Amino acid sequence: MSNYGAVLTITKKKGSISDQDNALFKKVLGILDMDEFEDLNGEPFGLTVETIASDDTQYQIKLTTYPNADEATQKSAKDNDLPLAKEIKDILTSTLGDQFGFKVGFEEW
Question: What is the pTM of this model?
Fold first, then answer.
């Protein structure tokens, strides 16, 4: 069984992601009011930044995580989570968009 949820992919536009970038992400993500962002179950979005092993220019944040469920539940979760994930993307783009690209999706892992 797979899990699924909303994902935010962060790509550095030039060069590799550095320790300074890590600190910057933590600072900016810490400013977000997480009470505004809740998944289908009323749980706050996660903001744990994960590195992508094969790529030193990208990070990924699993904003929401659900256990594998029927199609209707997955659709409801997607309908709930994607607009909120896009809000987070817009906030990050407005503050860090000159250095990083941001992409949201709803994926299975």
Answer: 0.87
The one-character DSSP state at 43 is P
- Whole-number Å distance between alpha carbons of 28 and 79: 26
Q: Which helix (H) or strand (E) holds 109?
A: none
* pLDDT number for residue 2: 72
How many Cα atoms are found within 13 Å in the side-chain-facing hemisphere of 87?
A: 13
Q: What are phi and psi of 71, to 5 degrees?
A: -60, -40
Which residues, at least 6 apart from 29, have a Cβ–Cβ distance to it below 8 Å? Answer: 47, 49
**Terminal-to-terminal C-alpha distance of the chain:** 9
Strand segments, DSSP code E, in 1-109 are: 3-12, 49-52, 55-62, 66-67, 100-108
